[in-house]
Amino acid sequence: MLAGTFAPKADADVIVYFNFEGNTFTSVPAPGPGGLYPLLQNQTIINSPTDPFPPGGLLVTPGVGTILNELVPDVPTTNTALELRGNTQGTANMNCFRFGVNTTGYAQASLSFALQSLGNGTQFTQMEVRYSTNGGANFTVTPEGLVTINRDGLYHIYTFNISGAGNTANALIEVCFTGSTSNNAANHTYLDNLQISAVVPEPATVASGLLGVMGLCWYQRRRLIRSLLPRRSCTKAGRWRRT
Is pTM, for the whole model, over 0.70? Predict the structure, then answer.
């Protein structure tokens, strides 16, 4: 597992899953493979309006996918993956695709996918994941920053921490690639089995937070009451009197 040490928790819910088996850019809708994932959302991948892939650079291609990062018991029928290609200008532009996700009520969100890089050395070399919580007005890069793509010709799983996009009804996720300086026919970057997992905060965690707030309020109220009580001082004769 690459892209840092962040990993999704075992008890996390899978809320988005793209396996591209329908030869479309649409995610697997609820209830999902085998009915085991009832919380899957219906989302669609689109080319970024600000940092798009060039024409022909964002495709779904059959026969090139993988079982890595696949949900059980999902079974590939066309073995399709997302195919990504760069430009022909000889410059390493940033090329991104995006999709939406509803993370309301969730925390500790993570994004993962399987990625394979093939080519003559001019294919994509790095990638990053960004998220927006204000409809795309601003994007924040995940803590992993720019991640180097393994170009050994094999599929590898990459995981990114998108916790900052938690508890947002209209979060946007962008997956961006850079370093490609040509769209040579031998250059292929394949992405498959993209997942977003997130955790519902435990009631004990929420309760402890509420108790902490209540305790602080009680302490402040007690201090206020004490400050309003009349003070007592000692006279020279040693007797207490109210002031």
Answer: yes
